[in-house]
Design goal:
With about 700 residues, the protein is α+β, with helices and mostly antiparallel strands. It has 31 helices and 19 strands. About 45% of the residues lie in helices and about 15% in strands. The two termini are about 55 Å apart.
Length: about 700
């Protein structure tokens, strides 16, 4: 690859994104810096398109590079798939193929990711705010797979020290399972992307099939067995080009991929039996030497592409790289289809049909279990409720029943073994709960329908209370309430009187009324336990998904609850009301104007502070970007903000109140200095506090005037 290819990519970025990428924040920088910033953002847009195919216009809107981007430049969120995915891009342009990415960039990128995982959305700039609802939906569906994409204009591999640091930080995040991964996109990837299908490399390869069989009617095809070693070599030589015609590429982070890899490393002799195999389309297939059906045959393939089984190929390569001595014993069924005499559209039909069949999951087998059939009958006859056991069946309204999946989740949360709650949080499809031993532990041989239904009711009530609490919580407390629903349910269940939960005459509603107070206290004790056991910088998500950690947290929280001591107060930084009150103690506007801390003409941006604000204002703010911007003036008294939406002058709090009223009809006071930010420097509240600390002034008792 050469600088000629760099020029091709640059030309494509300029032609496709010049009028689409927002560059207003770079209007006053030097021309050279402006161009470099534009090209880096264009590279980020291309990376978004590579990972999540979309139009140029959509890709351009996914960029939030700039002040307070927290080491990340663009984002793409996919919620519609079975497994939600979040792609976070960091891009570096270089005309001379030296797009750098060192330890400093790694630290910033992972700090940004950690802020997102801790739900600290207001720490990101206003461009990022429009994506928050998508991110929240992805986490509500289930723990998403997160890919960190390094989009670098270079051909050289990453420095070894940088790679080791990335792997080290990934290991911290992936203590339970592979939730986060990264990939490097370089000049080769971008050059192929701008050329589209024309850039798909023509792959010619020789393969060996053991025990092959040939089909000739109506079209030529072969199928047989390949060794894991041969497939690993094939992928190692051609990489992503091998999947040029595949709909989904290799989706390295899917749970299927991980299971494939583990099978090859743990049971290589069974791999052929467990794998669905691989389908490859080829322009031509020619035998090399004598090829006798049923024996070993060598074949020369031209224009080969894996259209089904990309995950299998990628997983084989990873497993073989990690442990070739074990993985070499794996074998895979491979199907080769020649397009030489096929109708023009036949290859596309093969690709589509082989990728759209619904896979059979372990829970589908459990729906046939007599235990589930009996529960369905007991729900109908004893409780007059619906119990849905098959995937794809219409779910009943909440008051009219539940599904087998919801029952499994509730039973895991209310089981005496807290580790089951952690297993349930690891996968949105509850894959860990359907494994035979765990499944039997949860449901038993003859589960009581009343116990199942009452466990479901409890889980729903806890979730409802946590949702209410979240409206007043920030940062780690908000994250604990969001991720910790099963943890809190487990603790609450242990504090209730459940001795007669299977008795039809037991007054269960009398126990459910205790949930609001218990859920609040269990959350407080759990968060205190997590902070004490693992530190305030630890990941909440790790505490609720790791079986060892959740047990320690439960024990500590139960000790607190059993002591009858008052639940520990959440830190003031974790509660909206506390932060609002603290913010009013200092007249931020007066402090900032008196000290001329902010230059006249500085453009500030609004960032929603609490969950209710995000819920009510996100769509309204996204409709018109000017609504998020205001210009600062030191000469306009206590109304220093000129709002871009109407050119009127406001105090920060007055403008915040007016914006929320216009967005949702809600009329409420709010501390505006917590929500208006000088990009790259901090909120008005933070800037005023810093000024007073620098001058040694009291920061405790002045009334707010903002």
């Amino acid at each position: 690859m050469s600088k000629l290819h760099v020029r091709y990519v640059r030309k494509a970025i300029e032609e496709r994104f010049t009028d689409l990428i927002d560059m207003k924040d770079k209007a006053k920088v030097a021309e050279k810096d402006y161009v470099q910033a534009f090209l880096s953002r264009g590279l980020a847009a291309l990376a978004v398109q590579i990972e999540h195919p979309c139009s140029d216009r959509i890709a351009a809107t996914r960029i939030f590079d700039g002040d307070d981007d927290r080491g990340l430049d663009a984002i793409a969120v996919e919620v519609r798939s079975a497994q939600p995915r979040i792609c976070l891009v960091q891009a570096k342009w270089s005309d001379n193929l030296k797009g750098g990415f060192g330890e400093t960039e790694v630290d910033r990128m992972f700090r940004g990711l950690n802020r997102m995982l801790d739900l600290q959305y207001s720490k990101f700039n206003s461009r990022f705010q429009q994506f928050v609802p998508e991110i929240e939906r992805a986490f509500e569906v289930g723990t998403p797979k997160i890919t960190l994409v390094l989009a670098l204009m270079r051909t050289a591999p990453l420095d070894q020290g940088t790679k080791e640091l990335i792997e080290e930080k990934l290991a911290e995040l992936n203590q339970v399972e592979e939730m986060v991964d990264y990939k490097l996109l370089d000049l080769r990837d971008f050059h192929r992307a701008i050329l589209g299908d024309a850039a798909a490399p023509r792959i010619d390869a020789r393969v060996r099939l053991d025990g092959f069989v040939q089909e000739s009617t109506p079209y030529k095809a072969l199928y047989g067995t390949m060794t894991a070693a041969d497939l690993a070599d094939l992928y190692g030589e051609h990489r992503r080009g091998l999947f040029a015609r595949n709909i989904r590429d290799n989706l390295d982070l899917t749970d299927v991929n991980i299971k494939i890899r583990n099978t090859l490393l743990e049971e290589p002799e069974h791999f052929w039996y467990f794998s669905n195999g691989i389908t490859m389309l080829c322009e031509t297939i020619k035998p090399v030497g004598k090829a006798v059906p049923g024996k070993v045959g060598d074949f020369q393939l031209t224009g080969a592409s894996v259209v089904n089984g990309a995950q299998t190929v990628s997983a084989i390569h990873r497993a073989y790289t990690a442990d070739p001595d074990t993985a070499q014993y794996g074998r895979v069924m491979v199907r080769l289809i020649s397009l030489e005499d096929c109708p023009p559209e036949f290859g596309d039909h093969v690709t589509t049909n082989t990728n759209t069949q619904n896979p059979i999951e372990e829970r589908d087998f459990k729906s046939l279990d007599k235990v589930q059939v009996q529960l369905r009958d007991d729900f109908a006859l004893m409780l007059h409720l619906s119990y849905v056991i098959k995937r794809g069946e219409a779910l009943p309204a909440p008051e009219h029943g539940c599904s087998m999946a919801e029952a499994a989740e509730a039973l895991a949360a209310t089981h005496s073994n807290a580790q089951l709650a952690a297993l349930a949080k690891r996968d949105q499809n509850l894959a860990g709960l359907w494994e035979d031993q765990t499944y039997r532990e949860i449901f038993g041989e003859a589960p009581n329908a009343l116990r199942v239904w009452r466990s479901v009711e409890l889980l729903r009530e806890v979730r409802n209370q946590l949702q209410i609490l979240r409206d007043g919580l920030l940062w780690r407390a908000d994250a604990a309430a969001f991720y910790g629903d099963l943890l809190v349910t487990h603790i609450v269940f242990r504090r209730l009187d459940t001795r007669f939960i299977e008795d039809p005459s037991y007054h269960w509603p009398r126990e459910l009324v205790k949930v609001p107070d218990l859920a609040r206290d269990a959350l407080a004790w759990s968060l205190a336990a997590i902070d004490e056991e693992y530190g305030k910088s630890s990941h909440i998500i790790a505490a609720v998904r790791n079986t060892e950690r959740i047990e320690r947290v439960v024990r500590a929280a139960m000790r607190g609850l059993d002591s009858d001591r008052t639940a520990p107060a959440l830190g003031e930084d974790y509660q909206v009301a506390e932060v609002e009150t603290r913010g009013r103690q200092v007249n931020a506007v007066t402090t900032l104007i008196t000290n001329n801390r902010i230059a006249d003409g500085t453009v500030l941006e609004f960032r929603a502070y609490s969950k209710p604000e995000r819920r009510e204002m996100a769509e309204w703010l996204a409709e018109e970007p000017r609504r998020s911007l205001a210009t600062w003036s030191n000469g306009n008294g206590n109304k220093p903000l000129q709002w871009h939406a109407d050119e009127g002058w406001y105090s920060p709090s007055g403008l915040t109140k007016e914006m929320r009223r216009l967005a949702s009809g809600t009329v409420t006071s709010a501390q505006g200095t917590l929500r208006w930010f000088v990009p790259g420097e901090g909120s008005l509240d933070e800037l005023a506090l810093a000024v007073r600390l620098e001058e040694g002034l009291d920061v405790g008792n002045e009334p707010d005037g903002s």
